[in-house]
């Protein structure tokens, strides 16, 4: 009788494993536990500041980030030409702890002479963060159940099917965990983008009046004189081939005709002279 009971127990365990496998799916697991989560707010800022020494401000920004427990993500310096001279520009991106966000902004504003523009944004991701944590708990509970079913599976086909769904659950866990870590990082460290540049050069505003008109007229006169001189030079250069190909042959022809006329007149004068005999 004990021999017949052993196969019966084995069959009952296999049946329970199959029933458990049928009950568990990717959308069912133990209900998530309620947890209290602090608010997750992603705060960013963008500032444009005028300063006579952007290079020095660049070093100060790095010190501010380090002093507030943050770091410099990117730092770039460049020069741009303008009608009033070169303008030096520094672009930097900082990350500072969210708790030091306002303090860091105050120190950054004090770097320059004037804040040209400032933009602060905040995004509350608390609800998404809580949802991700709940989904993560659900998927981990589902993973544990699949692992338990794997131990009880007696058929190769059941083991393969459990292993396939277990791989899907683990892929989902990695995806949810990656998104949760990203939100955690963005909420714990605020991003501050800062542009430092030299003050824009002042342009003279006196564009009217007698002296301004006189200055413009004098400049226009010089431009016209230069244009006339350049035109004469261009015409003269253009006439050189004409002089060589047309004027020179005409000049040679004129000299030949002149000599011929002189010879003819000389012969007539000699013939008309008294005492001339042929």
Give the oligomer, counting copies of the same chain as homo and different chains as hetero. single chain
Number of strands: 5
Report the average pLDDT across residues.
81
- Poorly predicted sequence stretches spanning 5 or more consecutive residues: 1-10, 21-35
What strand line-up does the widest sheet have? Answer: 2-3-5-1-4
> What value does the Rg take, in angstroms?
48 Å
Structure, explained:
- By secondary structure, the chain is of the alpha+beta class.
- It has two domains: 1-201, no CATH class; 208-278.
- 60% of the residues lie in helices and 20% in strands.
- A hairpin with a 2-residue loop joins strand 2 (71-82) and strand 3 (85-97).
- Helix 4 (126-152) runs antiparallel to helix 5 (156-188).
- The model is unreliable at 1-10 and 21-35 (pLDDT under 50).
Structure keywords:
alpha+beta
Topology overview:
Elements: H1 2-23, E1 41-50, H2 54-67, E2 71-82, E3 85-97, H3 101-109, E4 114-124, H4 126-152, H5 156-188, E5 189-197, H6 210-272
Parallel strand pairs: 1-5
Antiparallel strand pairs: 1-4, 2-3, 3-5
Short description:
By secondary structure, this protein is α+β, with helices and mostly antiparallel strands. Helix content is 60%, strand content 20%.
């Amino acid at each position: 009788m004990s021999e017949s009971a052993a196969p019966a127990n084995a069959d009952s365990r296999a049946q329970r494993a199959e029933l458990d496998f049928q009950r568990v799916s990717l959308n069912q697991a133990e209900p998530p536990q309620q947890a209290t989560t602090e608010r997750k707010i992603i705060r960013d800022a963008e500032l444009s500041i005028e300063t006579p020494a952007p290079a020095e401000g660049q070093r100060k920004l790095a010190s501010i980030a380090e002093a507030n427990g943050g770091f410099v993500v990117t730092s770039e310096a460049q020069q741009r030409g303008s009608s009033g001279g070169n303008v030096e520009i520094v672009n930097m991106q900082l990350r500072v702890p969210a708790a030091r966000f306002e303090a860091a902004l105050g120190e950054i504003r004090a770097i320059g002479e004037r804040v040209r523009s400032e933009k602060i944004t905040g995004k509350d991701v608390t609800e998404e963060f809580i949802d991700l944590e709940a989904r993560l708990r659900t998927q981990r509970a589902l993973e544990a159940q699949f692992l338990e079913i794997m131990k009880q599976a007696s058929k190769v086909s059941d083991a393969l099917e459990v292993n396939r769904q277990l791989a899907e659950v683990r892929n989902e866990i990695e995806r949810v965990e990656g998104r949760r870590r990203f939100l955690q990082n963005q909420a714990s460290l605020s991003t501050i983008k800062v542009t430092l540049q030299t003050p824009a050069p002042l342009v003279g505003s006196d564009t009217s009046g007698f002296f301004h008109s006189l200055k413009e007229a004098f400049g226009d006169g010089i431009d016209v004189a230069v244009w006339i001189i350049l035109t004469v030079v261009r015409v003269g250069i253009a006439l050189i081939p004409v002089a060589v190909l047309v004027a020179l042959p005409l000049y040679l022809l004129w000299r030949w005709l002149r000599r011929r006329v002189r010879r003819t007149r000389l012969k007539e004068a000699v013939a008309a002279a008294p005492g001339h005999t042929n």
